[in-house]
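Notes continue from the previous slide.

Worked example: a multi-chain complex. Inputs as given:
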Amino acid sequence: MIAIDWGTTSFRAYRLDSAGAIVATRSAPKGILSVPAGGFAAVLDEQIRPWKEERPIVMSGMVGSRQGWVEAPYVPCPAGFPEIAAAMREVRKGTWVVPGVSCRDDCGVPDVMRGEETQVLGAERDGLFCLPGTHSKWVEVRAGRIARFSTAMTGEVYAVLKSHSILGRMMEEGKANARAFRDGVERSGEPGGLLHHLFGVRTKGLMGELDAAAASSYLSGLLIGHEIRSVRPPSFLLLGEPSLAELYGEAAAALGCETERLDATSGTRALFRLGVMLRGKEES
Amino acid sequence: MIAIDWGTTSFRAYRLDSAGAIVATRSAPKGILSVPAGGFAAVLDEQIRPWKEERPIVMSGMVGSRQGWVEAPYVPCPAGFPEIAAAMREVRKGTWVVPGVSCRDDCGVPDVMRGEETQVLGAERDGLFCLPGTHSKWVEVRAGRIARFSTAMTGEVYAVLKSHSILGRMMEEGKANARAFRDGVERSGEPGGLLHHLFGVRTKGLMGELDAAAASSYLSGLLIGHEIRSVRPPSFLLLGEPSLAELYGEAAAALGCETERLDATSGTRALFRLGVMLRGKEES
């Protein structure tokens, strides 16, 4: 079968053997935003041409959003493999889209994810997962089902402040500065709130107390520190891109949280399992 | 004399009579960022041509920053009229630049202002002042001196999220929506932290629970709510542009804080008083 992670800006395909092991990989900058309306089938066929006989094809990520191939409505929490498999959408014979998951917090405000549910469930572990990124996800899994989750806009806020605010104008490119990052994490626990702490990036620079080349590390520590403190878990599982998981692990350690890093191939394992469930459904 | 408020993006000049009353006003989009290096005297002379015999000229705002006419170093808190008058810089005969004010919070992180010190001291009141804006200032005045203050990047964070983030992409222009603004203020007190609450602007929109035309009001309420909650004053004095002061007043009321609106001409009064102090200094 073929497992596909089709997100906003990238496309990744994995050919799996009958035991679920990855035998070949393809990736391309063909995220859904680059696909013209009605063009999804053509892009998919072009990308997986050498494997075109393989079925089923199971796809997760933004390909199932309103802007994707087909909108696969969110499955409400609690959501595990059975609920997600039951809500998959077949876009053409043997080609399936995995739905996202939604929940509401105690105050009734909705939250959503698409793609991360596959990574989390593929880890086959209960616990609190953190998936850092543009929109970081904190996901609680109980008895094999996603019980609840919340999103923090940390990565995107970092990017827009760096590219478009007065804070970015004083930054110079530099390599990651571990000391400035830790200072930012520490600052996140001091009084004043995030909107005040952000201005400190500028004033510390003005006063010669923060190098222009270290300012982005300080800002990153500040934001990640605020994110982790808002959740305040005693421990959590880290699942994501290695350099970002490294930063979150450091920030968590500075805040006294224990973390365990998981490998990031769990998404493919979950898609394999969903593919097997489909086959069972077809045969029954 | 002439009082001038010369900021980053605008220039405002006031001709004052011998009692400090405003007899004429000029304003132009000639902020310091639009002035070429070495060009400050020429821009000033052009703007105040009809009043060119008047002296002294007293200027406050970013004209005294590193990017301005001359850098007038920050005066540390506590700072009142005597400390500020003593640190004014004469850029040419009879033309003076007012310095900004700096302080450090309990954790040693610096903060700065330029221009707001004049508005606050001109009000001739003790108390906690809020000056909302791109970089909002919260200023505590005791016995006629600025004792301490802190800055929140609320206005700039609002602007960059609206113009450059995924939140802005789903917004449509609409008139201010008081209900959505109040919902945002209320949300700011719920668990999860600002970085999580921001994502709610998107998810509420996705779920059809927030109109595209009301989303910017909700975001504004969320950010202003977080700002005021970080200070949590029982009451404060509001000094600033009327429409923004109105929003802060509404948010404060929703949070159970009392506010008093002050008129925004206090900056000119302070510059007049500094001008009188200069004259006294010259005569003594």
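Summary box: Residues 167 and 201 of chain A are 7 Å apart (CA to CA). The longest strand of chain A covers residues 145-152.
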